[in-house]
Write a structure and sequence with these properties.
Layout: H1 2-22, H2 28-44, E1 50-56, H3 58-62, E2 81-88, H4 113-119, H5 131-140, H6 151-164, H7 167-173, E3 182-184, H8 185-196, E4 201-206, E5 212-221, E6 228-229, E7 244-246
Antiparallel strand pairs: 1-2, 1-5, 3-7, 4-5, 5-6
Helix pairs in contact: 1-2
The structure holds guanosine-5'-monophosphate (2 copies).
Length: about 250
């Protein structure tokens, strides 16, 4: 997508130059017209409108009938972990698998791996070292923002966001602890909003006993991948929460 975008921008710029030379750059109305056409085409070429930054509570991922497996590198901390950084459109739809020519390459992020093991652990079975999860997230989502963030930039942006949005610390300061008790979803969302200054979206799942539990927290991020913003749109669906949900231990 990035290459296509760059090529089309280059062609338009060359066209603009040829046309303005042809008009000897004297006819300012004509020049202005060409400039407008070029600007409009360039803004239409935008890849996505914002990111969802999604964190998951490991206790809730594990406490379901699918169960979970601790990574080969050891049990992750009792903290929220990154699920993903997902480019999205403000109409609610989203791009995916944008560039098969840019596969996951772990050698580009070797300096980030120990932080990824701690903050972006994979809990799926069989027990694994996280590479399959990271590769999936890069190829499905990361390749759709590659015009802004290369692989290193993408994973680094997610890790920086994780330290900026310290959900467990925010919730615990509000008296909301992973202790297996039930908490009101609106109270959880308000605590997070007070902590980060923006309204989050909460998704829940169901434990083996059929109780709804706090599973994922979505916050929105600008197209640079660095600043939090109000969500232009929340994900489709109701997030599967009931008014009060369990916050299981991990
Ligand atoms: P997504 O839901 O982002 O499209 O895909 C998540 C994929 O990553 C699924 O195939 C899931 O099995 C795999 N995966 C591996 N580890 C984890 C994990 O810790 N959490 C989640 N949510 N998915 C994981
Ligand atoms: P689920 O159906 O479990 O909510 O989502 C499955 C997968 O679809 C997610 O892991 C993610 O890869 C993708 N997905 C679901 N909802 C959204 C969304 O609103 N935006 C984006 N970008 N991806 C999503």
């Amino acid at each position: 997508m990035g290459t296509k975008f760059n090529r089309s921008v280059l062609i338009k710029l060359l066209l603009l130059q040829c046309l303005s030379v042809l008009s000897e750059a004297q006819d300012s109305d004509f020049f202005y017209f060409v400039q407008q056409v070029t600007d409009t085409s360039m803004s239409e070429a935008q890849d996505f409108d914002f990111f969802y930054f999604v964190q998951q509570w490991p206790g809730s991922y594990c406490d379901t009938s699918q169960s979970c497996c601790y990574p080969t590198t050891g049990k992750p901390p009792s903290d929220f972990g990154i699920h993903g950084l997902w480019p999205n459109y403000k109409n609610g739809s989203y791009p995916s698998y944008c560039d098969p020519d840019n596969p996951y390459d772990e050698s580009e992020i070797s300096d980030l791996i120990s932080s990824m093991q701690e903050n972006w652990a994979s809990l799926s079975c069989p027990s694994n070292n996280g590479s399959t999860f990271w590769s999936h997230e890069w190829e499905k989502h990361g390749t759709c923002s590659e015009s802004v963030l290369d692989q290193h930039g993408y994973f680094q942006a997610a890790l920086k966001l994780k330290s900026k949005v310290d959900l467990l610390q925010i919730l615990q300061s509000a008296g909301i602890n992973p202790d297996g008790r039930n908490y009101t979803v609106s109270v959880i969302a308000s605590a997070i909003r007070d902590g980060i200054g923006y309204t989050p979206w909460i998704a829940c799942n169901v434990d083996v006993a059929g109780n709804r539990q706090l599973y994922e927290v979505y916050v929105c991020v600008d197209t640079s991948g660095s600043s939090l913003i109000e969500c232009p749109v929340f994900p489709q669906g109701d997030g599967k929460c009931t008014s009060s949900v369990e916050f299981p231990a991990f």
